[in-house]
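Note to self: the last two entries modelled the partners one at a time, which told us nothing about the interface. This time every component goes in together.
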Amino acid sequence: DAGVTQSPTHLIKTRGQQVTLRCSPKSGHDTVSWYQQALGQGPQFIFQYYEEEERQRGNFPDRFSGHQFPNYSSELNVNALLLGDSALYLCASSPRTGLNTGELFFGEGSRLTVL
Amino acid sequence: AQSVAQPEDQVNVAEGNPLTVKCTYSVSGNPYLFWYVQYPNRGLQFLLKYITGDNLVKGSYGFEAEFNKSQTSFHLKKPSALVSDSALYFCAVRDIGGTYKYIFGTGTRLKVLA
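The predicted structure of the combined assembly is written out below.
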């Protein structure tokens, strides 16, 4: 049973560029959340998707956008990259049926470096 | 607003000794509390959770946590530390409104010395 998979694992971009990160949730999970973890910090909630719609959003600018596909996989897009966007981006999946008590299952992350 | 605090950036403990990693919380309503562990260059792994019931919660790898409502704390503990327990530990609280938005602490680095 594959867990949460993310790609790419590492990438380097320059300021102003755009990036797309991808996530496949754990089998049986239909809810995907994205978190940003800056160096030395805890993960910060970006947004959550289920039923192909953004359901909740954290305090991130509109440069951060996402998408969820019918197979529950998800993408995170960041436009007009800033140096401060350098971080580990974590995808987490969960089943909706476990909403009230469920823990998050994390992928290993995509480390983005913006130069 | 919901929040958690981890007052120690780093905890050092000798192998075989008991360990405690501290977490305090501030929530509206009943807290849903979690501990996660992160190994270098990896994602977070779930250790344990408190939703309701017994104040002592047992989790993975021999870890346990004690929920203390009066002190608004949820400290992570293990009776006998292993060198392999060395990692970054995060306390988290689930936000209100029945969602999967979690608020994480800043993390505590645990170093177990051989």
